[in-house]
Fold each of these.
Amino acid sequence: MKYAILGFIWLCAISAGFSAVTALPAFAVDNMQSTDAPDLTSVRAKIDAKDYAGALSELRGLAEDNQQADVYNLMGYTLRKTGDYRTSLTYYTKALELRPDHKAAREYLGELYVETGETAKAEEQVASLKQLCPDGCEELEDLQKAIAAKAGN
């Protein structure tokens, strides 16, 4: 019995450690490869049309029912576009807690940092994207362009 209890405690400790490592917080549109996301076609159309209020309304309903990185990423993106940087940061963080390899969330978080003058933090997202796509990717290129454009101003 003593060993069973110790085994259970050990298992809990390992699980807690694994959760802490895999859910590191970090500070979209989204990864199209995701298969567990709800249908976001309508939201994307509203975002493309710059109907951020309509997109937010729809996303709030989806966020209540879906703990899903693409939903949180789009919520962060839409909030950033409306100027609500603080809440946007919260949603990007949630997206990256669920999927640390979410390239779009990393790009958009970096763009948030560019917009708020935190270039060093934006560069951290560049470093993360370089690890995620060593051969390059659109998200990395877009974030690097945003940083360069800000530096040129």
Amino acid sequence: MNADGYSTVEVLNESQVEQLHALIKQQWWGGQRSLEDVKIMAANTSLMIGLIEDSSGQLVGFCRVLTDFAFRATIYDVMVTEKLKGSSLGERLMDTLCSHPSLQRVSFIYLACEPELSSFYERWGFKTYEGRAEWMIKVQRKE
């Protein structure tokens, strides 16, 4: 048990994956994601950090990274349950992720966020990308 009442995990059990699905459904972007797809995502994510409330065993925060562990990594799905937003758990997720030993060799770490969240991520050295490349997207199915 941690002093603050929350523990971090890098592997989710079946119950926690179901809790992750519920957490994703709380997000503006996650309403259409199915439990089956969340299970596939969890099984194929390079690195994930879950925050577990020690007293209840509930998943209350989550983030994940897709990476080759050498050159590029992209952060996805940084989220905290609605009732605990503003409690510094988002900072704990990002601290844990950005200091993770397996990401220290990575040259570039990317993330996408809503413009009003940019200042939150700047604390970890993220800034608006102004390079030669332009990000593109191909939508294969609606979420």
Amino acid sequence: MADPVVVVATFFPREGLHDSVHAVIKAAQTDVYQEPGCLLYSLHEAPDRFVLIEKWASVHDLNVHGEGKALGKLVKALEPLLDKQIEITQLQPVADASKHPASQVKGADA
């Protein structure tokens, strides 16, 4: 079984466009969840940014998502709304978390 992969994407809205950026990202949620291997698409916010945490069943699923229509549509819609380029960080587990007691918490190590 492939290891899951986590992606953190940070979006910096132009001044006055916070709500517009929020709406665009939320609108993509249904399409992204329908993609194979999408385990999590969780949006968080701060006054100057949005942070999207995604979890994919495998790097392959993430790569398919990266070439898919949903992400292309999202990026195109966000381009004029952002103050700077989207920051994307791909994370990998550093240890076998399934052996840790906390892994029994739902979603800790899917």
Amino acid sequence: MNKKNRGFSFVEVILGIAILAVVGGGALKVFSETGLPQQAMIRDYTVAMNICERFLSSLHNDLADGMAIDNMVDKDVTDAILENPNIQDYLKIFAGGVGKDTTSLTSNFKALLTVRPGPGPQSGVVKNIKLEFKWHIGRKQHSFALESYVYTR
């Protein structure tokens, strides 16, 4: 057997590693960048859900304490959410991290509250409450809605 035909030369091995690094690096970049927007969207939906839950929970507590609430359709409650101290941590996460200014969020999201009479004969004391949280990332519009019933006195 000839000594030349036994394997790859050092130059061929180095050239193969270089080609693999270039192709592998490009493929890694493509796949890792496509996952980032998906992760941000999942984070935003989770944070939006937590903001809606906290706001509705505080609204339920206010109603249990005797606050009266009128029927309304799509009332803008964005300012009430921005001023709620129980929601500030979630707003900072939604803004892109702790330490960001939450007042700049008013252009990024809107919260709409709908209150209607509940079903059945006690529609005066049972209220259907729906909070819709809308935000946009670039040109894409996203929304999350949370609905509940509450007994009012």
